[in-house]
Amino acid sequence: MLPVLPIGLRAKVCILSLFLLCLPWLGYHYVWEMEKYLRLGQEKTLEGTTQALATALHERPKLFNSQASFLSQVKKGRDLYAYPLSGPILLDGKLNDWQSYQHRMLRYAADHVIYQADPNTPLQSEFTHMVGKFGTYLYAYFEVTDQDVVYRGQNTLSVDNNDHLAIATLAPDGQFRRYIVATKQDGWINAFELPLDPSQNTPVTPELKIQGQWLKTNKGYNIELRIPLTMVGSKLGFSIYDVNRRPKRHLSSIVGTSAIDSVDKLGTVLVPSPEIENIIKGMRHNSSRIWVVDKHGRVLAKSGDIRNSQSIWARDLSRNDSDSWWNQFSQRYLHPLYYKILTKPPQDFVDSLHDSTELKGSHIQQALSGKLGSTWRLTPDGRAVVLAAASPIWIDNQVMGVVIAEETTNGIRTLRNRALERLFNIILIVMVAGTLSLFLFASSISSRIRKLRDQAERAIDSQGRVTATFKGAKHKDEIGDLSRSFANIVSRLSQYTHYLENMSSRLSHELRTPVAVVRSSLEHLSLQSLDNDTQKYVDRAQEGVQRLNLILNNMSEATRLEQSLSHAETSEFPLNKVISGCMQGYQYTYPEQAFDCEISPNTLKIVGVPEYIAQLMDKLVANAMEFSLPDKAIKVSFQQDNKDAVLLISNHGPTLPDNMVEQIFESMVSIRSQQAQQKPHLGLGLYIARLITEFHGGKISARNFTDNSGVEFCVRLPLKKD
What span, in angstroms and rounded, lies between the C-alpha atoms of 323 and 480? Predict the structure, then answer.
């Protein structure tokens, strides 16, 4: 039970408690602010990484394809990108190895027609195409839609009067070279090199370095091939020639990535640079991912994986998986609670740029303008935040590419979570210790206040009498001061109560002598012959003396009773006979008053003084007769209830006020109106009844009828134990 504090003190305690609760809140927000600064530090660190790598690539033009890099713009479909392949392609014409790269495939149809014999007829041939790089080979596939596949004749020397694939490139040696891929049947392809002169298609020379498979399908045919990178330069173009049989063999259309009859018409091909990859491959051992792109955003090299959790921000924060009780308790109970607020860095997330061949973004645009750039982005699944920084690569005072470094904030989030875990642990320990300390402190104060309360209640009884001494505490605090103040108050109250208790007896003693003198004087005066007017005043004086004498008798009655009760000798007697005898006497004494008696015939014995029980009956019956209505009987009931004898005396008449039900048994308390009193009443009758009842170990109470038609007094006395 906690002590009840004054409102002002409680308000101060609440304000102090709220202030203390602000400390964890401030610590929590401090950690979040520190995370912002750590992110800023990570951003600057990543920018420094890109600057260092860009420095290694500055002024090295051989690392960049000059013709591709200096293009003003890159046209999708014409300018090709050799996507890095995860492994070598099985050249079987079935295209199974290309399924995981479907999102990189391009469709060539009406928008890529180079030649069409009859523009008014629908295009009958189109294809899907992709190139990729693995090792020292450039791989390509063509899924051609053609309802009439025309192969080379078995005995013909011509290689272009049939469906075929034409390839043109600006070779690394600077020569413009053209090749034709044709076949007489499904299977291993036949490749031929055309003359250097673009105006001539013969004679042809077999080219065995170009290898692949031709496979007919339900909708046309597939071609899978590979070309050594040593044969491919910075420019490359492919064209599918569709030859129809009717009315005679003729070229129906040419659909391709670009025209192949001249170098200027060829598109570019960007092959990821192995030299640049060798420079940046060391970055794969940390949590950053490094990209090198050309000025058009096409990826030249890539290294590293942002899913790697071994960040420099978190590698020193590996958990101590010891078997200590605190670690076990934290892992099992505290961390599930903490992580209802915190978020764990994900072990896996959707990385939309994982296999990108072209990068865009504000940081790249800023780097292409010659400045450092950085940006933050959220992964598509919203589970991770990725920081990207970019630095320009300078060649001859021109930005020819960009180095991009990417890293997640998982390390910082892990660091933040560890800091918050420790903060929560400290807060929990402090709060538990503080709570226990406050509980013990409050319990100590509450215990002392309860003792002070109990001592105060024992010192004064329900009638306001001081019945015990009050000892002040020796503690030198506020509660000790309060205890000593109570002891002083009780001591002074005891003296004053003793004075009041003895005042009636002293007054009675002191007033009897002058009253006797006045009475004797009036008696002598009445023996003389007096006229009528004088006799009237003498009679009135005698009446006042009698009234004053009655008051003195009433005042001394209670005092005498209290003194006699303390020395009374008790005996065993039948209570029912005493009550029956009293009721018979009342019926003879007050014949004009009706009584309704219901007294148990059983012998009910108690230990006490019969004369006092009779005096108790006198007070209660007199009180009932005074307030009873003239035509209503007073009901008296005496019965046994378990181990008690119950006496009920009730009358019909005025009811008791609600606030006087218990106070009427106090000394000097009366609810009679002054006008209705025929003789003086000091309010001692029911007080005497209570003293007698308590002397016999019982209880007395009063209550109004439920219909407010009268009052009932109940006296409950314990019976003698057998």
Answer: 50
d(CA 494, CA 483): 16
Beta strands in 500-614 (DSSP E): 571-574, 595-599, 605-608
Q: What is the rounded CA–CA span in Å between residue 412 and residue 34?
A: 10
Q: Which helix (H) or strand (E) holds 434?
A: helix 410-459
Tokens (6 digits) for 356: 């990108």
Residue 514, burial from CB neighbour count under 10 angstroms (0-12, 13-18, 19+):
exposed
Measure the CA–CA gap between 358 and 376, rounded to whole angstroms.
18
- The token pair at 127 is 């294809």
Residue partners of 170: CB distance under 8 A and separation at least 6: 67, 176, 177, 233, 234, 235, 236, 263, 266
Query: Quick one: tokens of 249?
Result: 């063999």
CB 350: neighbour CB atoms within 10 A? 12
Closest alpha carbon to 232 in 250, 198, 209 = 209
The tens digit of pLDDT for each residue in 241-280 reads: 999 987 788 889 999 999 888 888 888 888 887 788 788 8
Place of tokens 């023996």: 527
Return d(Cα 81, Cα 98) in angstroms, integer.
15
Tokens 């020397």 correspond to what residue? 157
- 671: Cβ contacts below 8 Å, ≥ 6 apart: 656, 657, 660, 664
Strands (E) across 509-656 are located at: 571-574, 595-599, 605-608, 634-641, 644-652
Dist. CA 223–CA 211, nearest whole Å: 10
End-to-end CA distance of the chain: 42
Residue type, 604: L
Q: Give the integer Cα–Cα distance in Å for 43 and 27.
A: 24
Report the run of H or E that residue 15 belongs to, with start and end: helix 7-57
Q: What is the DSSP string of 626-681?
A: HHS-TTSPEEEEEEEETTEEEEEEEEESPPPPGGGTTGGGSTT-----TTT-SS--
Q: Contact at 8 Å (CB) between 459 and 490?
A: yes
Looking at residue 102, what DSSP letter applies? G
Which amino acid appears at position 185 of this protein?
Q
* Beta-bridge mates of residue 292: 301, 403
pLDDT in tens, 475-532: 888 888 888 888 888 888 888 777 766 666 666 666 767 777 777 877 777 777 777 7
